Amino acid sequence: MSMWGWMSSAGLGELVRTSPRMTAAEYVNILQDVLLPSVEAMYPGLYQFTFVHDNSAVHKARMVSEWFRERPWIEVIDWSPKSPDLNPIENLWAAVVREWNDIDEGHHVRTREQLYLHAQTVWERFRGQNTCENLVASMPRRLKDVIANNGFWTKY
């Protein structure tokens, strides 16, 4: 089961199910058909934005790089291959996993469909809260902690 979602300081974007081994073509389709329309809905009239994704092979594929190059209004932040993963969306994924792990295994059959429904429920629960705003606002503190720890793991 794989999913893709996005967030900003203004809140959550969309959450979509992906194939277990997402291809560059699938990722480009998600960027085009999910990311762009939902960014426009959240930020009407926005003419430029910054995008962060990690160094997975799909994200670094030539097709993906070309898609971003054709859209110069999207600034993609280079992600260091050896950096700790400070992308705040990881905290949202962790919350989904934490709550999934808290389910009493003796009373629930776990299926892929149930996992997806669970992830959607947790994702939607974060809407309208300040969760994303707080995560983004925590970035200066996170970066200071990484620097103070000489680039090694921090509590984040």
UniProtKB/TrEMBL annotation:
One of the record's GO molecular function terms: nucleic acid binding
Any Pfam family matching the protein: DDE_3
Residue ranges of domain Tc1-like transposase DDE in the record: 2-102
Superkingdom of the organism of origin: Eukaryota
Protein name: Tc1-like transposase DDE domain-containing protein
Organism (species): Ignelater luminosus (Cucubano)
